[in-house]
């Protein structure tokens, strides 16, 4: 097992190495299951609650280097306002939230599955997952994965139970074998090894021992890499090029186990390596690779090379959804060094011209992608997540406008103003605005007006709105939207008072 960081400076290597060492330091810890006499399950939240509505901490979903609970593992729920069902389950093993996103499913929904292979009698215990979505509309990979564990009594409570309470008696809560960015345990690999051994072994037709995992046929332009198509043309005779998302998961598992070497731009496709072990991998990444990949490589005994060859200059709140750009010249040089491609390609003049075209195309596409993101639900969800997790918005709110970093585009402002926020979110947003010194005064007043409107402080909301002195902002859709909301709320208030 080796991890090699290539084209990183000394400080970057030190930071990454320290992070991954802290994560894998937990790999041999003994995992346990906490016993709870009684618990409520509310599928809207990523945890269990006691009779008073307080979070059972051992059940909460945590992430990050500080092992913090996620916003959806809220510390308390109001038991009295939720509907108590007549469902009561006894002898339960809690497996946690079931994510429909492939990466989150493989890294977090599976975190407690190690417990299936411990001392829980599969004929006695009920193993519980939950999701706020409709399980009948779940992606095919999820159903395929769970089908391997049909010998266990696994039950999924889905969105049909939103805002309801399910009673659980005699509950075991296994420690998670992975906490993203914080810890990983060797037992995390148990369910993947189980599936690998059960999966039908079908012979794969291949022309090389090396496989390139391509992203060029993803259904969206988001997260694509400028220059990848040109790279594929250069290496197509040297390696097999695969688009994993076009294959069934069972075929992907066979495919991944049939190759010895993998190459590609870092992303969810590499999570399928969990179904393998001892591979050589060349990740094309930027200067800040996802630290969980490195930790998993160590667990899997992989020989992993992380090549810092991507240019992603975006620092906005959706940077992980933004496209990036391949440094083609350095990429070819690295692949020549590792004998993936022929050495003579290194100095081909075509590469210089190709890089220039990549740079031009990347710049042209960037604004288009930004506008797509501003109008998508991705932004709305991200804003809500940032607020609840108490992360400073910094210039993240402003960076999407390239003309002036202290201004925000109107469509982006409108998205913020239309986002429904809980009371705790409003308090947090207000504290962020106080500390957000660089944000334009008029934009602050607009967001403060939104906060007071949500709190039904109509006079204060109107006061902040009227204090805006920017003619440009006063003619914007955001201003007009908020003005209309205040007026309509005021009319409702008058009607209620008259009645």
What does this structure look like?
With 499 residues, the chain is α/β, with parallel strands linked by helices. Helix content is 37%, strand content 18%. It has 16 helices and 19 strands. It has helices at 10-24, 102-109, 140-147, 190-198, 228-235, 249-258, 291-299, 328-337, 349-374, 377-388, 410-418, 423-435, 441-454, 458-466, 471-474, 477-498, and strands at residues 2-6, 33-41, 48-49, 62-63, 68-69, 83-97, 126-130, 154-157, 164-174, 178-179, 183-184, 210-213, 225-226, 240-242, 261-265, 280-285, 303-308, 310-311, 324-326. The strands form five sheets. The chain has a six-stranded parallel sheet. β4 (62-63) and β5 form a beta hairpin.
What is the distance, rounded to the nearest whole angstrom, between the alpha carbons of the first and last residues?
74 Å
CATH topology of the largest domain: Rossmann fold
Q: In terms of structural class, how would the helical and strand content be classed?
A: alpha/beta
Number of strands: 19
Proportion of beta-strand residues: 15-25%
Low-confidence stretches are: 382-407
Q: What shape does the CA trace take?
A: globular
Query: How many helices?
Result: 16
C-alpha Rg (nearest Å): 25 Å
Oligomeric state of this protein:
single chain
- When the domains are counted, the total is 3
Q: What is the mean pLDDT?
A: 82
Query: Strands of the biggest beta sheet: in what spatial order?
Result: 1-17-16-15-12-14
Largest sheet properties: 6 strands, parallel
Task: Give the CATH level 1 class of the largest domain.
Answer: Alpha Beta
CATH architecture of the largest domain: 3-Layer(aba) Sandwich
Q: Which range best describes the helical content: under 10%, 10-25%, 25-40%, 40-55%, 55-70% or over 70%? A: 25-40%
């Amino acid at each position: 097992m080796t991890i090699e960081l290539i084209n990183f400076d000394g400080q970057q290597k030190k930071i990454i190495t320290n992070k991954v060492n802290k994560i894998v330091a937990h790999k041999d810890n003994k995992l346990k299951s906490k016993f709870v006499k009684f618990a409520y399950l509310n599928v809207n939240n990523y945890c269990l609650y006691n009779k008073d509505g307080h979070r059972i901490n051992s059940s909460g979903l945590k992430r990050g280097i500080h092992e913090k609970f996620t916003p959806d593992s809220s510390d308390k729920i109001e038991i009295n306002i939720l509907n108590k069902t007549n469902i009561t389950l006894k002898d339960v093993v809690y497996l946690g939230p079931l994510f429909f996103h492939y990466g989150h499913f493989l890294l977090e929904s599976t975190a407690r599955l190690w417990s299936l292979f411990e001392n829980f009698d599969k004929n006695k215990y009920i193993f519980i997952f939950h999701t706020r979505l409709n399980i009948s509309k779940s992606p095919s990979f999820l159903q395929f994965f769970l089908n391997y564990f049909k010998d266990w009594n696994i039950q999924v409570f889905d969105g049909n139970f939103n805002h309801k309470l399910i009673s659980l008696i005699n509950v075991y809560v296994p420690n998670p074998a992975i906490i993203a960015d914080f810890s990983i345990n060797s037992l995390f690999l148990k369910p993947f090894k189980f599936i690998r051994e059960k999966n039908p072994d079908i012979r794969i037709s291949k022309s090389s021992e090396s496989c390139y995992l391509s992203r060029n046929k993803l259904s969206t332009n988001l997260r694509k890499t400028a220059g990848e198509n040109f790279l594929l043309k250069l290496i197509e005779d040297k390696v097999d090029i695969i688009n994993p998302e076009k294959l069934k998961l069972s075929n992907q598992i066979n495919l991944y186990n049939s190759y010895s070497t993998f190459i590609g731009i870092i992303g969810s496709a590499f999570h399928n390596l969990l179904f393998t072990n001892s591979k050589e991998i060349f990740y094309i990444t930027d200067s800040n690779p996802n630290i969980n990949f490195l930790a998993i490589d160590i667990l899997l005994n992989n020989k992993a090379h992380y090549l810092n060859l991507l240019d992603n200059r975006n620092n906005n709140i959706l940077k992980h959804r933004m496209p990036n750009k391949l440094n083609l010249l350095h990429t070819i040089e690295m692949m020549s060094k590792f004998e993936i491609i022929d050495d003579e390609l290194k100095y081909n003049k075509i590469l210089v011209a190709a890089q220039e075209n990549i740079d031009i195309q990347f710049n042209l596409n960037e604004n288009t992608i930004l506008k797509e993101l501003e109008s998508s639900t991705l932004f709305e969800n991200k804003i809500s997540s940032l607020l609840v997790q108490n992360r400073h918005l910094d210039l993240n709110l402003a960076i999407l406008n390239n003309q002036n970093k202290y201004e925000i585009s109107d469509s982006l402002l409108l998205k913020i103003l239309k986002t429904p926020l809980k009371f705790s979110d409003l308090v947090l947003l207000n504290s962020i605005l106080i500390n957000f010194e660089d944000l334009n005064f008029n934009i602050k007043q607009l967001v403060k007006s939104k906060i007071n409107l949500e709190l039904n402080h109509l006079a204060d909301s109107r006061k902040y709105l009227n204090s805006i002195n920017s003619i440009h902002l006063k003619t914007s859709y955001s201003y007009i939207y908020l003005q209309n909301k205040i007026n309509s709320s005021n009319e409702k208030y008058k009607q209620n008072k008259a009645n």
